[in-house]
Design goal:
This protein has nine helices and 15 strands. The chain has 270 residues and is an alpha/beta fold.
Length: 270
């Protein structure tokens, strides 16, 4: 698979598509530039982390490859059925490890603490402890490309419009829109932040050759900055430097005249 694709895996909070309700990932087509043709929803209502991991090979793995993003929004049914967080974490780790090995970039939603409020009040301490421990451990996994915390957004941005009752957070269209808008904003913020790595400079015929690589973003312009000192540095743009492409969309070279005994360089975009 070479084209960009977005695979969504989870429980009913991702799989919804009945009556007047639509799944939150479908809202991405309304609140972003994500085309519906690039999306595949593999979520199944009622799923636990165990059933999601159990269907990975047959239902999700086939979509893996370069340009494929797997979004996981899991754990709520584990909480509601009082599965301990260590078991949930083990299942999640298995899926994340396999998916990353297969070529997916992983986008993970932290488990929503507010869903624990649907339980009997006597279970609050145990369930909130499970959510806290599960989320803390998920945050440490280096295989996750992007983490999204929708519960924090509920508290800070939508406290006046999202409401609770005896069964917890209402599954309204507002919640779907909130999840979708957070995905859209954070994905684009992450995707459009390039990582530039400058290689060892090389000198030849009074020219400085500066090779560098770019990953993690879409970039169309580069600037070569230079200074003669790093303390209280005054970085200026070398407008005369020549830019060439070594490998399209990945490796480039600036060539600049070597006319100073000491000079420091860095590459900036845009």
């Amino acid at each position: 698979m070479s084209a960009v694709s977005y695979i969504f895996e989870g429980d009913s909070t991702t799989a919804w598509n009945t009556g007047t309700e639509s799944s939150w990932q479908q809202d991405l087509t309304n609140y972003s530039t994500f085309p519906a043709s690039t999306m595949t929803n593999g979520a199944v209502g009622g799923s636990t982390t165990a059933t999601m991991w159990g269907r990975y090979t047959n239902s999700i793995q086939k979509w893996a490859g370069p340009g494929a993003y797997l979004t996981l929004r899991i754990g709520i049914n584990d909480i509601l059925t009082q599965i301990d967080w260590q078991t949930s974490l083990s299942n999640w780790n298995c899926e994340v490890s396999a998916a990353s090995r297969d070529g997916f970039k992983i986008i993970n939603y932290l488990c929503q603490w507010d869903k624990a409020l649907a339980l009997d009040p006597g279970s609050y301490p145990t369930e909130i402890n499970n959510v806290t421990n599960l989320n803390n451990e998920m945050l440490t996994n280096p295989l996750v490309w992007l983490t999204i915390n929708i519960a924090a957004a509920n508290l800070t941005n939508y406290a006046s419009t999202i409401y609770f009752d005896s069964i917890g957070l209402h599954p309204t269209a507002l919640e779907d829109t909130l999840v979708a808008s957070n995905f859209n904003y954070l994905f684009n913020q992450k995707f459009n932040t390039p990582v530039i790595v400058l290689g060892q400079p090389a000198l030849t015929n009074n020219q400085v050759l500066l090779n560098f690589t770019v990953s993690g973003g879409l970039v169309s312009r580069f600037h070569l900055l230079q200074t003669t000192q790093l303390i209280a540095a005054n970085w200026t743009t070398n407008e005369a430097a020549a830019l060439t492409t070594n490998i399209a969309s990945g490796s480039y070279r600036f060539t600049a005249t070597n006319n100073s005994p000491i000079r420091f360089y860095r590459v900036q975009t845009p």
